[in-house]
Amino acid sequence: MLGRASLSAAPEIDGVRSAPQEITRRRAFWRAEWFLFLLFVAPNLLLFGIFSYWPMISNLYLSLVRWDMISPVKTFVGSANYAYLFNDNEFRMVLRNSAVFTVGAVGGSLLLGLATALLLNQKLRWRNGARAVLFAPTLLSGAAIGIVWVYIFDPRFGLLARLLGGIGISSPSWLTDPAWALPAVIIVYVWKNVGFSTVIYLAGLQAIPQDLYEAARVDGAGVLWRFRSVTLPMLSPITFFLVITALLNSFQAFDIIKVMTEGGPVDATNTLIYYVYEQGFVAYNAGRAAAAALVLFAIMFAITLFQLRYAEERVHYA
Amino acid sequence: MRRGGSSLGLGQVVSYALMALAVAIIGLPLLWMLLGSLKTNQEIYTLPPQWLPTEWRWENFGEAWNAAPFGQFYLNSIITTLAGTGLELVNATMTAYAFAFLRFPKKEWVFVLLLAALMIPNQVTILPNYLTLSDVFGQSWINTYQGIVLPGAATAFGAFLLRQSFLGLPREVLDAAKVDGCGHLRLLWDMVIPLSRPVLVTFGLISLVAKWNDYLWPLIVTNTQQMRTLTVGLTYLFDQEGNTDWGVVMAASMFVIVPLLVIFAWAQRHIIEGIAAGATKG
Amino acid sequence: MTRTVSRRKVLTGAAGVAAAATATVGNVKRSTAFAAPAVIKQAEPISVLYWGSYSAALGEAEQAIVQMFNESQQDVRVEYQFQGTYEETAQKLTAALQARQAPDVSLLSDVWWFRFYLANALAPLNDLIAANEVDTSDYIESLYNEGVRDGVSYWLPMARSTPLFYYNVDAFAEVGLEEAPEFWSQLVEVAPELVQKDGDTITRAAFSHPTGASYIAWLFQAVIWQFEGAYSNPDFTILINEPDGIEAGEFYRSSTADGWATLPADNEADFANGLTASVMASTGSLRGITENVGDKFEFRTAFLPKAEEFGCCTGGAGLAIMAGSPPEKQEAAFKFIEYVTSTEGTTFWSQNTGYMPVRKSAVESEEMQAFFEENPNFRTAVEQLPLTQPQDVARVFIPNGDQIIGAGLERIVINLEDPQVVFDEVANTLTEEAQPVIEAIAALG
User: What are the tens digits of pLDDT across the range C311-322?
Assistant: First the structure.
């Protein structure tokens, strides 16, 4: 996995250990290798340079101006856009929503994914079919599936209301109640993405050598203890990968919210990424959108760096 | 858990029940969508909703197909998806190889730079990229295939995934090849790529799904009906005033979904084993 | 109305107007001949690029009218390109203007055209109107005036709508209302009887609000006028938190607080299924509601109820020409706009889409009158039309104004917050967001 250990200790496959007299030759060889490195990463980084880094740099500039994305004049306003965000009640709510959404979405899809993987790791008939069904929603676009879920959430006649009614619970007004709208979009996100973590966890489980379990069993470990002492540590590299990618994905989850709630009701599902869209492409306040986008970027960057630098030390590599 | 034998233990009954529950939760909304594509609009709007259509309306598919040039949309989607996925695969493979096997000073910071690309929201790049493509050395690439494809041709996720997989390849084999005087290009082509086929297929499919489903960028960068992709084409069925024929829309959604399902069914083994292989080895 | 029927209607309609169009072709040609030397007739037709937001059945009507225009004359060829929703069309136009890739004509909705006007992106139309001798007094005033700034027209009405009151005749008859309520108080009076419950679940509401901040702010525009209030003055003084506005807010709050109005995911679907006895909805929804109600019950449309007085706003979209287009394209583009908004054009468009005819002569035309005979519910909308007013600037000219007001209204009807508190906050935000607009208007001179 990515981290201090693997980053600093890339495997050396130049074979023969160098003798002192070979140092000069080795330097030339290294320079050739540096050149090859650059050659290999160049197309990717060049494209990113044009289509991602450059927009992000101009975004940095935009966050310091007031601009409606159409007039030729950009008025320099210094830190006013940032000041606005941090004094704005709506933006505080947006940050809170993003935190709740991300924790719920990442936690939900990872925990349920792990649980489902443990279930399907048993020798059950039809488990390949089940696996295929669970994976299918990841193939669909968020927009298409969002529309279907709007009807499923209808509090009187939706699929969910009828299921809840069957067990004597009356359905909340999911999408029109500010208390329930955010949980509703989290449910859809988890529904759509749980198959991905299930499948990855499942393969991880199948890769755990059986003798580790046998050894634990011999030591008298119970089911739970075996899970804690063998399964979880062995799965930690996967969990680490999933946490990073799921975090970055869920912070940028847009389609589902756009289709299902448009950030409402009363901003209950207005997350950072939606806020960036709304300020940018609905209110056409490029400065505020840029500032909010930078806040979003900074949060994701900080969390990822933290994980690379700190959390990975807890990851167990076989 | 009890294993084997024909008798079902209590644990297994619970497991089957839970598995059925999971399949139902994930599968029912999909089934609902499928059945919706066979209903009349009036029936879709009927509350309480019925599971099965009273009359199976297969015409929805014909009407959807005729409502817009879906043949052309298919062609555009196939061209742009294949081109985009191909470029992403090449980029991911080369970048991953460089990060896994080639030395470079302060390589870890280059890697962080690469990962940073995963954190730049789409919303930020749309307008600058539109402007960039509107004037490429005096030419406009708006409303062209390269305009749709190029901004998405780089990949950080793929490079990350493949790098993890490459690092997990048996080192002895690679070292042996190296000793035999194998250059990096040969090593990449003859050893690394064949050994990593599952994860390459996997990433290819993840990329393919993302490109196929992409909406906002193809909408912004294309103008004419001749250049629209399938997902953008779906909007040709929506009515500005909300009088949308949902049965037809759901039928058209099937146009988008079915090719992916077919590819997925065909490559299920590769995807599932490959995704896992990429993530587990690290 | 099914899709096939509507398509057939497009075709028969097309034939009718095409015939009418050939009658006017002579005029168009003559005016062209006056404007330019005869050489132009041999030249290639001028091509005009037109961006719009209509797809599905509306898109068919749009394609039909473009085709009719192209076949009606030799000088101009219009190409119609669909660009997504109103919101997406505005986004694309923004990007395209930056990149100098803009079309010659664009459809822009009520909340979007003004920002392009402020950026000097829209061509003033007065000279073109004069040169083509278009009788602007024949346009319905409220629709035409919405696109006029300082006496100059920038945005001509094409696909315009107004809110209507839709009610379930059977349900209203049950509680002794034979006609639509003239005043909201009449509805409130019988509301408890209209409401049906199964336990705590409302199975039929007396009235339902729409979801979507922009839509609810559009309907409330009419309601706040009915209470003699307003969102704002034309000079951007915000009035929403004045006593009349608060009173209107209290009325909305009571609708859900007293349990007779609901806020379902899709209030028009609820209405079509008898789950609510009445809604306010756009004239544009008439076709869909008619289709979905089917023969389940009888429904009718009526003028919006009054509070203290009558109030109803306009909505929808109009056409504008881009200032960056070369003069000859602007002229050609105007020919198209003239055609689409002509008596014949708007008659055709209105009959095939359910949008309002934008000309008085169209309303009075035999063809339209015959159409009303067949579609009495549509007649209501047209009769109400002369009583409508353009929306307050706070909703349509302040960036995001519709969302800001709508989010406030959601707080009132969903969270049941105090309208005074909410509208004070909304007013502050609107005042703040209006500032750049006021400066931009001042800069225009």
Answer: 999 999 999 999
Preceding peptide of B48 cis, ω within 30°: yes
According to DSSP, the residues that pair with C78 across neighbouring strands are C48
Contacts of C287 in chain B (CB under 8 A): 241, 243
H or E segment and range at residue C81: strand C76-82
C319 with C35: CB under 8 angstroms? no
3-state secondary structure of C208: strand
Q: Taking Cα atoms as reference points, which of B114, B200, B107 lies closest to residue B160?
A: B114
- Per-residue pLDDT tens for B126-178? 989 999 999 999 899 999 999 999 999 999 999 988 887 788 777 787 788 77
> Amino acid identity of B11?
G
Q: Residue B144 is encoded by which pair of tokens? A: 């062209």
β-pairing, C163-168 with C299-302? antiparallel
Burial of A304 (0-12, 13-18, 19+ CB in 10 A): buried
Contacts of A310 (CB under 8 A, 6+ apart): none
Closest CA to C216 of C174, C171, C256, C167: C256
Output the six-digit token pair for B66: 């005729």
In this prediction, residues B265-279 reach a mean pLDDT of: 61
| Amino acid identity, position A65 | V
- Both C140 and C70 in one domain: the answer is yes
Q: How many CB pairs under 8 A join B and C?
A: 98
C141 and C172 belong to one structural domain = no
Q: Fold for domain A80-314?
A: MetI-like fold (1.10.3720)
Contact present, A242 and A110 (Cβ < 8 Å) = yes
Beta strand C261-262 with C299-302 is unpaired
Considering only CB atoms, C101 lies closest to which of B142, B240, B241, namely B142
Tokens of C76: 């101009």
CATH of B59-280, one of 3.30.365.10, 3.50.50.60, 1.10.3720.10, 3.90.1150.10: 1.10.3720.10
Token reading at B116: 């940073």
Beta strands in C260-340 (DSSP E): 261-262, 278-282, 299-302, 315-321
Q: Report whether pLDDT(A114) > 90.
A: yes
Are C397 and C438 in contact by the 8 Å Cβ rule? The answer is no
Structure-block tokens of residue B231: 């997902």
Q: How crowded is residue B165: how many other Cβ atoms within 10 Å of its Cβ?
A: 26
How many CA atoms, within 13 angstroms, populate the side-chain half-sphere of residue C51? 28
Measured at the alpha carbon of residue C192, what is the angle toward residues C188 and C197, in degrees to the nearest 5? 140
Q: Name the residue among A47, A127, A237 with its Cβ closest to that of B282.
A: A237
Q: What residues 107-146 of chain B have any CB closer than 8 A to a CB of chain A?
A: 107-108, 110-125, 127-129, 132
Beta strands C278-282 and C163-168 are: antiparallel
- B14: CB partners within 8 A, 6+ apart: none
Contacts 24+ apart (CB under 8 A), C127-130: C128/C321, C128/C330, C128/C331, C128/C334, C129/C153, C129/C334
Question: Residue A125 class from Cβ within 10 Å (0-12 exposed, 13-18 middle, 19+ buried)?
Answer: exposed
Q: What distance in Å separates the CA atoms of residue B87 and residue B229, rounded to the nearest whole number? A: 18
**Domain stops at, among C345, C380, C415:** C380
Q: Which residues of A touch C199 (CB under 8 A)?
A: 170
Gap between the Cα atoms of C122 and C388, Å rounded = 25
Radius of gyration of chain C (CA): 23
C122 touches chain A (CB under 8 A): no
Q: Which residues pair with B62 in a beta bridge?
A: none
Contact residues for C178 (Cβ-Cβ < 8 A; gap 6+): C172
CATH number of the domain within which C253 lies: 3.40.190.10
pTM score: 0.87
Asked if the ipTM is above 0.90, the reply is no
